[in-house]
From TrEMBL:
Name the UniProt record assigns to this protein: VOC family protein
Lineage, opening ranks: Bacteria, Pseudomonadati, Myxococcota, Polyangia, Nannocystales
Gene3D superfamilies linked: 2,3-Dihydroxybiphenyl 1,2-Dioxygenase, domain 1 (3.10.180.10)
Pfam families xrefs: Glyoxalase
Domain VOC residues, every copy: 11-126, 140-255
Annotated SUPFAM superfamilies: Glyoxalase/Bleomycin resistance protein/Dihydroxybiphenyl dioxygenase
PROSITE patterns per record: VOC
Record-linked InterPro entries: Anthracycline_SecMetBiosynth, Glyas_Bleomycin-R_OHBP_Dase, Glyas_Fos-R_dOase_dom, VOC_core
Length: 261
């Protein structure tokens, strides 16, 4: 069991969920991913930290009264060492800042906005809270990608923010995917949305690793969620796109099935 203590600038370092039912969300994610939860902190809007064997993995918060009309969703945060400078780059690159840099006392500074294609994401400048302490193991987030209909525009936008090395995979006609690297390490990706995504706005997708995708998908159903796509095999493992009981969408990924001998 290892504990991660930091992330490079530009890497997804944290994710959190807004939900209309905090108790219900805790039951669902405990059942599906095995999380335990800290007591909600009233002065931070009853925000609670989910943990895996004592290590932080994500945050969960109930919707505020003025947010009840908004859909429940997962949000990803990209790490930055200078949030003011990154927010300026975000605006200069054609994004839209909706929450300017603000301090979370003792924890760090956050900001939130939209990229130039309309996908929402956050920024995080750490103080004592350096990001998820468990990463890329069963029960923890392991990958993030931005899904958009304007792939080239998104790639240019994120290059303005951070020094990503962007590697195209796929044939660009039937599968257009860009992997974002930092210092040679893959940290995220960009998926070109096609006609099959009609009606779905641009968004960041969070993936959680599981030990076995099919039983995890069954647990999603058992605890009131929905399996929206899959499970299906990919070069990187077996994936299912799912939602919790309140409509927040995320993906789960486990090892590919062992071929029959």
């Amino acid at each position: 069991m290892t504990q991660r203590t930091g992330y490079p600038d530009g890497a997804p370092c944290w994710a959190d969920l807004n939900t209309p039912d905090l108790d219900g969300a805790r039951r669902f994610y405990s059942g599906v991913l095995g999380w335990t939860f800290d007591e909600p902190v009233a002065e931070f809007g009853h925000y609670t930290t989910a943990r895996l064997q004592g290590r932080s993995v994500v945050g969960v918060a109930p919707k505020m009264p003025d947010q009840q009309h908004l859909p429940s969703a997962w949000s990803v945060y990209l790490k930055t060492s200078d949030i003011e400078a990154t927010v300026r780059k975000l605006a200069d690159a054609g994004g839209n800042v909706i929450v300017p840099p603000m301090e979370i006392p003792g924890q760090g500074h956050m900001a939130f906005g939209f990229d130039s294609t309309g996908a929402a994401f956050g920024l995080w400048q750490p103080a004592s809270h350096t990001g998820a302490q468990a990463f890329d193991e069963p029960g923890a987030m392991c990958w993030h990608e931005v899904n958009t209909r304007e792939g080239e525009k998104a790639d240019a936008f994120y290059r303005r923010l951070f020094p990503y090395e962007q590697q195209q995979i796929g044939d660009c006609k039937t599968f257009d995917y860009m992997v974002y690297h930092l210092a040679g390490t893959a940290v995220g990706g960009r998926m070109q949305m096609t006609a099959e995504w009609e009606g779905i706005p641009p968004h960041w997708m969070t993936y959680f690793r599981v030990e076995d995708t099919d039983p995890a998908a069954e647990r999603v159903r058992q605890f009131g969620g929905k399996v929206m796509h899959g499970p299906f095999d990919s070069p990187h493992g077996r994936i299912a796109v799912v939602s919790d009981p309140y409509g927040a969408v995320f993906s789960i990924i486990g090892p590919a099935p062992t071929p029959a001998s």
